[in-house]
Amino acid sequence: MAGAVQELREIAHSWVDGQHVEPDLLTEAALRAVCAGVDTPSLLHLAALNRCEHDLAPELFGRVMDELGFGFHPPQDYWEGRLALARWWACEIVGGWLDPAEGTALIFYDVAEAYGRCEELNPLIDAIAAYWENGGPQRSPEDTTAQLDQIARQLVARIPPPGPPLLTA
């Protein structure tokens, strides 16, 4: 069951930044999860979609992420949303659900490059700059993974969690 949830979570890692996958892949992953014993109302619905209903897949996958506890709802402000996304990916690294190298790359390329230097992202930017200034890989893969995990922990501590969405009348 854990492997099926991990597969859905891996889809979510890029999904939350707008990199959606084909509905066929969503329904197949949902079906594998249901067969593995994962049970949520939206997951069952997603797994049972036929080709004529594929337009429902994105909304259902959003519900599945919420029902499984790893949904992401960024603030409306673009920059606050980018920082919240960086924090979410860092939490996924710290939780062991996202490979530290992959997660750090997502944060660097999809947030830090666009956002630039700021207090919250400085540990990540400084570590990557030092990595390239030192000529690339100088450490063992285990040391690199540990360093990236530590950077993720720093980001989680530095970037406040997003507040509840504001209700507008």
Radius of gyration: 18 Å
Give, in order, the helices and strands. Answer: HHHHHHHH
Mean pLDDT: 85
Please outline the major beta sheet: none
Strand content: under 5%
Would you report the number of β strands?
A: 0
Rough shape?
Answer: elongated
Unreliable residue runs = none
Look at the helices and sheets and give the structural class.
mainly alpha
> Can you give the helix content as a percent range?
55-70%
Number of helices, where a helix is a run of at least 4 consecutive DSSP H or I residues: 8
Distance between the ends:
42 Å
Question: What's the helix and strand layout?
Answer:
Layout (H helix, E strand, L loop, with lengths): L1 H14 L7 H13 L5 H7 L9 H11 L10 H17 L5 H16 L6 H12 L7 H18 L11
Task: Please describe what this structure looks like.
The chain is mainly α and 169 residues long. The chain has helices at 2-15, 23-35, 41-47, 57-67, 78-94, 100-115, 122-133, 141-158. Helix 1 runs antiparallel to helix 2 and helix 3 runs antiparallel to helix 4 (57-67). The mean pLDDT is 85. The longest helix is centred in the C-terminal third of the chain and has 18 residues, at 141-158.
Question: What's this entry about, in short?
Answer:
Helix content is 64%, strand content 0%. With 169 residues, the chain is mainly α.
List keywords for this structure.
169 residues, mainly alpha, 8 helices, 64% helix, 0% strand, elongated
